[in-house]
């Protein structure tokens, strides 16, 4: 019976350790052999000894090291080597492991450190440390780039340097693409006055200054492309298109509510700068299903803009001459706003234009005679503006040849003389259709 009791593995388990339901219970109090502690101690001693041997020997006494510390910077962080050692650091105000000691006098502060032999260190005296510290960048000393051996100003990092370099490259690319297309407005506007009077600077210099002038729509559009827009720079034609649309936005007021109504200046491709507009009466538009879009309303298969509709948005400002670079544009509807100044002559270069609606604004001056190449133009509306003079021969020629079906102007009273218009409106904005194709 005593033998049976000595093999009783099903004895009640310790209250601190529940019995294992899948097998015998473990002993409640394990006993460690004394030799275990001895082996563990020997192992720790061996590890410590090996680690000590791996460190570089340094025979200098603590007193010598203390005298070398000096007020200029104390000690570096790598193996307690004095300041100036390879991989150690010192700031303008001293301390441990701050910013790295600056390169010797006469060296380029952005140049790489000399490649010394492995585990060799340069010890410097107090005079050199004081001299280097006084030459720190903007009073902040120097530091070593942890990812390379390049010396950088204190507070700078490789990431920030790369970001600045990327920004500079982006700016250079944008200036190269956009400078040739910049056109200074000819009508009087305070923000463009200095550029309109400038005669000594060449066109490229004027374009560069104008693009960096945040007081102008051109500068605001360029700033968006450079500092706000997150889309990468693609083909030149796409960059020009995005810039011209951004410029159009700022030249016509640049209001936040307009951006919200058209999705302009979003990170999406400019062909998606559009939003539905349920007519004037949103409820009736919803019930009837008759809705229109505002913004960039259509693009072709090459993602080039073909239709723009910015009607009835209370826009103020002017139409930039750079609109002519939207060469695929077929429809431009900017009616019922408060835009002024002359209409740009560049409209005559939009050879694919079919529909042009400028009515209901405050455009002034004469209608330029620049429409000879608009052989696809079918409808043009110039009424309810402040134009004067006569309808240009280029439009009357299109009307006579049959391409231009509708031509409206304020020819019902004094402002405009037109013998080829299909409708004439008076100062009360009452319009009457006429049938004439005689230029």
**β-sheet strand percentage:** 5-15%
Structural class: alpha/beta
Question: What gross morphology would you assign?
Answer: elongated
Count helical runs: 12
Rg computed from alpha carbons, rounded to a whole number of angstroms: 39 Å
Tell me the strand order in the biggest sheet: 3-4-5-7-9-11-14-16-17
Report the strand count. Answer: 17
SSE series: HHHHEEHHHHHHEHEEEEEEEEEEHEEEE
Q: Measure the end-to-end span.
A: 133 Å
Q: For the report, how would you describe the main beta sheet?
A: 9 strands, mixed
Roughly what is the average pLDDT, rounded to an integer?
A: 75
Q: Helix proportion of residues, in percent?
A: 25-40%
Unreliable residue stretches: 1-29, 65-126, 128-146, 148-152, 279-290
Spell out the blueprint of helices and strands.
Blueprint: H1 2-6, H2 34-54, H3 62-73, H4 126-134, E1 142-144, E2 151-153, H5 158-178, H6 193-197, H7 203-211, H8 217-228, H9 236-251, H10 256-262, E3 274-277, H11 282-288, E4 292-299, E5 305-309, E6 316-317, E7 331-333, E8 338-341, E9 355-357, E10 362-365, E11 379-381, E12 386-387, E13 389-390, H12 393-401, E14 406-409, E15 416-417, E16 423-425, E17 431-433
Parallel strand pairs: 5-7, 6-8, 7-9, 8-10, 9-11, 10-12, 11-14, 13-15, 14-16
Antiparallel strand pairs: 1-2, 3-4, 4-5, 16-17
Helix pairs in contact: 3-4, 5-8, 8-9
